Amino acid sequence: MPHEHNDGCGHESHDHDHDHDAAVLGYQDNLFQHIDRPNVVALNANGDAAEIIKPWHLRLDEAKYIESDADDQLIIRVPFTGTVRLKAILLKAGPSGHTPASISLFPNEPTLDFDDIQDRKSTQEVVVPQNREVGEYAVKTAKFTNISSITLFVPASQGEDTSRIYYLGFLGTWTESKTQPVITVYETQANLADHEKIQGMDGTWSAPGH
Questions:
Q1: What pLDDT is attached to residue 110?
Q2: Beta-carbon count within 10 A of 83 CB
Q3: According to its UniProt record, what is one Pfam family this protein matches (predicted)?
Q4: Per DSSP, which regions of the chain are E strands?
């Protein structure tokens, strides 16, 4: 989708590597190289969650994706290798009714699952249009500063029985952690018998870019 992007360096701490292959990063504030991909986890999902965290030049590839399993809900946990000031989320989903209706964002809550996410108020929600291109969704950066992980919750698809995501990326700035990170072993499989579809989502989602 068309958008303007300023990749000039400002006064903030930046993780820019100006010699890095632009085909991999795309934007110089793409956080691809700062995502802890081996520990990316998706709950109620078929497919390897790490495989939707793709280099920029593979963003339109549809060979690898994750799709919800027992119903149309998904939780994706994404840890970073340092501290991040997040600016935007990049997403390619679909097709059609398999597109998430919306995505709820939870920074710094790396252990959220279906049992407790209904008791949490998300920091931001974005509406996802049916579009086979990569969409860029700006976040309220002040609320996504100094984060070490982000959890994304898909409460429903746009009509089909499952939700599907092909590509997930992040734009922002990265700072190396000053302390040794705590290594957390995440569950690799959700117990679908314990997964009950969350009801009562009020539908008051923010529009992309607001």
A1: 93
A2: 17
A3: PITH
A4: 41-43, 45-46, 66-68, 74-93, 102-107, 124-127, 135-138, 147-154, 164-175
Low-confidence ranges of the chain (pLDDT < 70): 1-27, 179-210
- Nearby residues of 21 by Cβ (< 8 Å), 6 or more positions away: none
Q: What's the rounded Cα separation, in Å, for the pair 81 and 170?
A: 13
Which domains does the chain carry? 26-168 (2.60.120.470)
| Residue that has been written with the tokens 């939700």 in this structure | 163
Q: What are the beta bridge partners of residue 174? A: 84
pTM, 2 dp: 0.75
CA–CA distances in Å: residue 45 to residues 48, 67, 205: 8, 5, 23
Closest to 99 measured CA to CA, from 133, 124, 122: 133
The predicted-structure confidence for 90-99, as pLDDT tens digits, reads as follows 999 999 999 9
Nearest to 197 by CA among 155, 164, 141: 155
pLDDT digits (tens, 9 = 90+) for 171-187: 999 998 776 556 666 55
23 secondary structure, DSSP code: H
DSSP, collapsed to helix, strand or coil, labels residue 29 as coil
CA distance 76 to 100: 13
Peptide bond into 100 cis (omega under 30): no
**What backbone torsions phi and psi does residue 21 show, to the nearest 5 degrees?**
-60, 115
